[in-house]
Amino acid sequence: MQRRRSPATAIRGVLALMVMALIASVPGTLPAAAEVDSFVSDDFDSVVLDPVWSVVDGRGDGSVATVGAGSGTNNSLRVMQPAADEDFEVEAKFDTAPSKKYQSMGVLVEGAGGYLRFDYYSTGSQLRFFAAELSGGSGTSLVDVAAPSGTSLWLRVSRSGGAWTVSTSTNGVDFTPRVSFSSSLSVSSVGPFVGNYSSKSAPAFTGLVDYFFNTAAPIVPEDGGGPAEEYSVSVSTVGSGSVTRSPDLASYPAGSQVTLTAVPDEGWSFDGWSGGVSGSQNPVTVTVSSDLAVTATFSEDGQPPGRR
Q1: CATH number of 13-225
Q2: Reduced to 3 states, what is the DSSP secondary structure of residue 33?
Q3: Residue 300 CB neighbours (<10 A)
């Protein structure tokens, strides 16, 4: 996810536009806090985003996808799920770090008329941690400090009544408190976001979210403790010809791509695909998310398609 502005201001650049769009849509769209259960943990180990999440793309220039096992990827937006207005602790792990000026990623906590944002951002030469609250249209910076960098970055947000504490880590074990403050925000949703907040030129940024956990009910082991799901891609033919697969594997990890090429025998022509693939594009590349059985149909030259 991505977008931003001067990190010292809570509402600037693209991120502000995204948030304002969300606030405008809250009335009448989210259930009252008392009717919402605690948010659930997700380790993004499926090729399909769990329906508990809602994709919010205020600017309309982002995308969300899950890649392989254990990471989710989203560009310039946030994914949110309803949360009860109660004490909680969320822990998020990011497998990318902002490296260019204006890139950022973190956690949003939203409520009626306001939100809290906690994020890592880059100045172009330094990684920093920033937190801010927006309430009633007014933004207040809570902290803006240098943060140690790492291959992965963790962010933990704890709430107890009106008291909030936010901590960061580079190993998921040792957490350093970055800010403690009081807020009367009535929580309605939580989720990770990625942004690039310059009003002039914002560098594209793809954030990989390994997991987003409610620490009261984490997923153990994360990602099931095993390899990514794998699926078969089987091919068959009608008529005289063959099909090649590239790469040609016994099975394919979820989210991987395979290119199918229909090769007609002499005197025959390729008509089209059926089964797990449709149309007549040749070659055709498919993204594997389930077992696929694909048939290539060939017709003898000089005969109408379908008659052999």
Answers
A1: 2.60.120.200
A2: helix
A3: 15
